[in-house]
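Quick start: what a row looks like.
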Amino acid sequence: MRKKNSVIEVLNTKVKISPVNEKDYISITDIARFKDNTRTDYIIQNWLRNRNTIEFLGIWEHLNNPDFNPIEFDGIKKQAGLNSFVLTAKRWIESTNAIGIISRAGRYGGTYAHKDIAFEFASWVSVEFKLYLIKEFQRLKEIEQEQLGWDIRRNLTKINYRIHTDAIKQNLIPRELTRQQITRIYASEADILNMALFGKTAKQWRDENPEKKGNIRDFANVSQLVCLANLESLNAHLIQEGLGPAERLQKLNQIAIQQMALLLENRVVKQMEIEP
């Protein structure tokens, strides 16, 4: 299941969560609003200029980011703690090639951080807020897992339905007759058509289905009946051209295979199948 943008509410503060490379990134801009609704950038900058924060971010990047720039990181780390030191999220990202913090524009805009980093920031803002944030985040993950399970079951149902449908189609599409079946002498033209479409004569069907009343054509579906009507017209034409039974049966069987494959995919015929 593809992850989507989400919003949770923590102590009356809406916090956005967004997927980045299949990982959850939490808006630290929203977390900062819990402390000051109008000066979120300033709060994030104050957190970033903290030496402990820089060390934490550096360790996280070393563990998770093979492209992290350690030289630039060392330079920033040396400046951390000085009164003149200022660090923005943009500078941190561009200088060190960091991936743990990102900036976004638009509806889901703001500064986002990987959940590990976001929880650390939340702890700096308010320990109480962090605990409730973790609780709501876990609740969201549980809901997503339940949804994922439901989607898996639904998709399995679709797959099984398709397998079942394809199996039915495979049985409905006539098989190519063997040479022995083609050259056999059949009692009637009706049985030639039965062989071409159903692969068996009326008597063979009755012997196989003694409990059923009627004949093989009574149990044909709409697609088979449409194909049968076409085969009857074609057979009459082939008789006029002087083709013998074996040659006609071979041609009729080939056409039945082609037509049934097309008819089973035809939307109009499908609709006729389900209508009472």
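That is the whole record. Residues 170-274 form one domain. The chain has a mean pLDDT of 84.
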